């Protein structure tokens, strides 16, 4: 299984970025895919998730209304559209897969991508 995350960068507060996670190596229809982030000195935290089959989505309270997760089944790719970015959104963002739909727990995700840096300047 390979998860390739990209799309990070440097943006000013209030700006937008779109992250992509391209998945390969298995049939993902039974899985959920989540985005997590980890800031320096902090634990990895859940950001958003999507059920690959149903398209159902779930978000951390800190990003609701600003971030949108979506999937393109044909491309086996999940996107995270991030709007109204804040300096506190600065972190390395990771995508990961899980059989536990709706899970916010790092421990319930098995395969992880390499991470992409998002930096929001004030």
Q: Topology, please?
A:
Blueprint: E1 2-6, E2 9-12, E3 17-24, E4 32-38, E5 45-51, E6 57-59, E7 67-72, E8 77-82, E9 91-98, E10 116-121
Parallel strand pairs: 2-10
Antiparallel strand pairs: 1-3, 3-8, 4-5, 4-9, 5-6, 7-8, 9-10
| SSE run | EEEEEEEEEE
Q: Using DSSP, what is the number of strands? A: 10
Category by helix and strand content: mainly beta
Main β-sheet, spatial strand arrangement = 2-10-9-4-5-6
First and last CA, distance = 37 Å
Short characterization:
The protein is mainly β. It contains no helices and ten strands.
Model description:
With 122 residues, this protein is mainly beta. Helix content is 0%, strand content 49%. It has no helices and ten strands. Strands 2-10-9-4-5-6 form a six-stranded mixed sheet, with no helix packed on it. A four-stranded antiparallel sheet has the order 1-3-8-7, with no helix packed on it. The protein is globular and about 40 Å long. The model has no long low-confidence stretch (mean pLDDT 95).
